Amino acid sequence: MRLPTLGGDPTRIDEDAATALLHEAIERGVNYVDTAYIYHGGQSEHFLGRALSGGWRQKVLLATKLPVWEVKTQADFERLLDAQLKKLGTDHIDLYQIHGFDAVTPLDETLRALDDLVRQGKVRYIGASNLAGWQLMKALGISAQHGLARFESIQSYYTIAGRDLEREVVPVVKDQQVGVMVWSPLAGGLLSGKYMRDGSGPEGSRRVSFDFPPVNKDRAFDILDVVRAVAEELNATVPQIALAWLLHQPAVTSVIIGAK
Predict the structure, then answer these.
(1) Which backbone phi and psi does 149 adopt, to 5 degrees?
(2) What count of other Cβ atoms lies within 10 Å of the Cβ of residue 195?
(3) How far apart are CA 240 and CA 203, in angstroms?
(4) β partners of residue 34
(5) Mean of the per-residue pLDDT values of the chain
């Protein structure tokens, strides 16, 4: 899960509400929490660190991401990670992920730097986010060739209304046994069932002011018509059906839910 925001504004966090929701989620069985260096203007890690103090940290797998475009040397990697560890109030990151593809820095340099962090014990596993299939496969090949820690997971956008991932990434992860964690599994709320074809939605909801990720709306609403019918038949909600569809895909390990 990710921290909730105020009125759907991605820069404003209601810290008390976020902490209460996180603790309830953990008590109900959520055991993986995802954040990033750049979320909420750099404040998300601070808030999460405070929320996980007092013994809560030991109950979850903690993941964060680094902006690869801001780090170029091993010293940069260590400096950034040390700052993140301090904000998060922990001595290690369970899953440390690159937040996108760096077209400037050679992949082998990035992987060697990440491998050093794993060997130091500051990072347990490494992952990636938003890589194309060929980029992920190239990284896996480099790690295998040089005996480096490899990307064990990838975060990608994937929904019943947006299945581009199936063209290249899904075949790679299934073949290479890489986990997939889906971000925005409800397409930025579009698959919640509360938006209409004309673009209207509840006041203050995220997609009204932040229309992301891009979705073929006509196709998505055609799919929603079917999902609604299935939900009614099963006495379930539209988002429950959309999430269940994802969780039944063989390539998907888990989904990342944002809540408020």
Answers:
(1) -55, 140
(2) 22
(3) 22
(4) 63
(5) 92
Six token digits for residue 228: 């609604």
64, two tokens? 């964060």
pLDDT band with cut points at 50, 70 and 90 for residue 7:
very low
Backbone angles phi, psi at 160, to 5 degrees: -65, -20
Q: Residue 192 belongs to what H/E stretch? A: none
Q: 196 exposed, middle or buried (CB, 10 Å; 0-12, 13-18, 19+)?
A: exposed
Q: What is the mean pLDDT of residues 13-30?
A: 92
Whether the model pTM is above 0.85: yes
Q: Is the dihedral of CA 73, 76, 78, 81 positive or negative?
A: negative
- Supply the residues annotated as catalytic: 39
CB contact at 8 A, 221 and 187: no
Q: What tokens appear for 42 in the block? A: 């750099």
Structure tokens at 113: 């730097």
Q: Any idea which residue has 């038949």 for tokens?
A: 233
Give pLDDT tens digits for 70-110. Answer: 888 889 999 999 999 999 999 999 999 999 999 999 999 99
The dihedrals phi and psi of 96, each to the nearest 5 degrees, come to -110, 125
CB 231 within 8 A of CB 237: yes
